[in-house]
Amino acid sequence: MRAPSAADYDVYKTFYADAEASAAYGGPLPAHLAWKKLAADIGHWRMRGFGMWSVYVRATNEMAGGCGLVWPEGWPRSELTWWIIPAARRQGYALEASQAVIAFAYRELKWALVETHMDDDNNAARALALKLGGEVIARDMFPDGRERDIYALPRPTGV
After folding, report:
1. Domains of the chain by range and CATH?
2. What is the C-alpha to C-alpha distance for residues 117 and 129, in angstroms, rounded to an integer?
3. Between the N and C ends of the chain, which has fewer C-beta atoms within 10 Å?
4. pLDDT (tens digit, 9 = 90+) per residue, 124-159?
5. What is the pLDDT of residues 16-32, one digit of tens each?
6. pLDDT value of residue 22
7. CA quadruple 102, 95, 144, 149: dihedral positive or negative?
């Protein structure tokens, strides 16, 4: 994982143009709005001191997606979030990246609790949250008018 940069724009643009792939992330989006998503991910680090990383495949040095911690203005809670391009799915990248981000949040940021928020119809994300040991602790209303389940993600052993 590395900090997001302008070099990631083509992957953002492609991911957000794909209606099916980006449906749970506000897509599909035209190119200029995908650019705004990347700019927001870069700026989130400056504004909050944490944010998204770009997930790269070591063997190929190709970007597979993004994973990190976000708390957009107006949202009721912070969360772990991730997205993976369709060609890189089901290879463990989201799991590995999420485990590293959860450990970072507990170890470096000293968070008392790491959470993720789940749309009711996002079965793939729910499966990953459960694989990470997540448990539903609440249901909350978000500024987009949708209710979501809130999953608590446990502290990794040794962290």
Report:
1. 6-153 (3.40.630.30)
2. 9
3. C
4. 999 999 999 999 999 999 999 999 999 999 999 999
5. 999 999 999 999 999 99
6. 96
7. negative
Q: Which amino acid is at 51?
A: G
DSSP assignment of 4-70 equals --GGGHHHHHHHHH-HHHHGGGT----HHHHHHHHHHHHHHHHHHS--EEEEEETTTTEEEEEEEEE
Look up residue 70 and give its two tokens. Answer: 């976000």
Two tokens, residue 123: 């079965």
pLDDT in tens, 75-129: 999 999 999 999 999 999 999 999 999 999 999 999 999 999 999 999 999 999 9
